[in-house]
């Protein structure tokens, strides 16, 4: 037999339900409007990549009912966009690997050890976030010239690794500081040294934050047009963002080709995000909560 519900309880329940429904409806309206302003431009670029240049100009907002692949074949044959793809993957992927390795080790030391000067190191790391990247271009470029690294893969990998290390260290250290000390003590009892503990305990447990750092570092490295134009301007090592800038200047009237180049540039970022998206929200929130 179910308990009776009074009139006052029914009124409060109906008000709560009504308030919840209005709030949910408003939330969906806002999210729908946001998705239209974000997703539709991507669809517009993708749709126009299957049109000829004159159709992009005359029928920009119509669907490509008769898609043509000429723009894609031109992008790979005449512009050699595949080589630029490979360059971007090599340089951005290497940057992510080095940032995760060195940043993870530094974060492990800062989050799990107490030593003199720890607060000073944290202060220096936070202070470096205030230094704009443009202020370091001249000394970095001179250093690369002296070491003969200009127009090489290392000429972009090393500066981008150094530029992203601070962010990675602070974010990963914030997450690792929340890992229970009992887990570390149990690993010591089982005979793990510091390196084994980092590789077998802290890295697997910290997968969410490593995934978050991966997507951000890869995104910043992949889209770093300013550094690419200065440090690796040679065609053989030119990343895809630099190629996209060149297409805009040389093939400015071929709007179908430009739409294709933009589509091919954005595609890797979307694929990587889809693979690790489930870790991103968890990695961004858990590192800021103690316990």
Automatic annotation (TrEMBL):
CDD domains, alphabetized:
TM_PBP2
Q: Does the keyword Transport apply?
A: yes
Mind telling me which residue stretches traverse the membrane in this protein?
20-46, 85-108, 120-141, 161-180, 201-222, 255-276
Which parts of the sequence belong to the ABC transmembrane type-1 domain? 85-276
What keyword terms does UniProt attach to this protein? Answer: Cell membrane, Membrane, Transmembrane, Transmembrane helix, Transport
Where can this protein be found? Cell membrane
Which GO cellular component terms, listed alphabetically, does the Swiss-Prot or TrEMBL entry include?
plasma membrane
Instruction: Read off the PROSITE patterns from this record.
Output: ABC_TM1
Similarity section: Belongs to the binding-protein-dependent transport system permease family.
What is the official name of this protein in its record? ABC transporter permease protein YurM
């Amino acid at each position: 037999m179910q308990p009776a519900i009074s009139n006052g309880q029914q009124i409060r329940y109906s008000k709560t339900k009504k308030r919840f429904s209005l709030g949910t409806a408003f939330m969906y309206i806002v999210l729908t409007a946001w998705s239209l302003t974000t997703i539709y431009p991507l669809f517009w670029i993708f749709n126009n990549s299957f049109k000829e240049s004159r159709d992009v100009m005359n029928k920009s907002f119509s669907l490509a009912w008769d898609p043509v692949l000429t723009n894609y074949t031109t992008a790979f044959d005449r512009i050699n966009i595949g080589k630029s793809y490979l360059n971007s993957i090599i340089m951005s992927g290497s940057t992510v690997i080095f940032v995760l390795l060195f940043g993870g080790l530094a974060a492990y030391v800062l989050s799990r050890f107490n030593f003199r000067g720890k607060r000073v190191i944290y202060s220096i790391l936070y202070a470096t976030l205030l230094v704009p990247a443009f202020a370091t271009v001249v000394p970095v470029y001179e250093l690369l010239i002296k070491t003969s690294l200009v127009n090489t893969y290392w000429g972009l990998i090393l500066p981008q690794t150094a530029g992203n290390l601070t962010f990675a260290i602070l974010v990963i250290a914030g997450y690792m500081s929340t890992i229970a000390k009992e887990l570390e003590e149990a690993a010591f009892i089982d005979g793990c040294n510091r390196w084994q503990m980092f590789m077998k305990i802290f890295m697997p447990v910290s997968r969410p934050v490593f995934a978050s750092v991966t997507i951000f570092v890869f995104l910043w490295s992949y889209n770093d047009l300013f550094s690419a134009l200065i440090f690796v301007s040679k065609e053989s090592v030119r990343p895809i963002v630099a190629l996209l800038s060149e297409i805009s200047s040389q093939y400015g009237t071929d709007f179908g080709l430009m739409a294709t180049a933009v589509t091919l540039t954005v595609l890797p970022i979307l694929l990587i995000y889809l693979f690790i998206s489930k870790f991103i929200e968890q990695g961004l929130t858990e590192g800021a909560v103690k316990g």
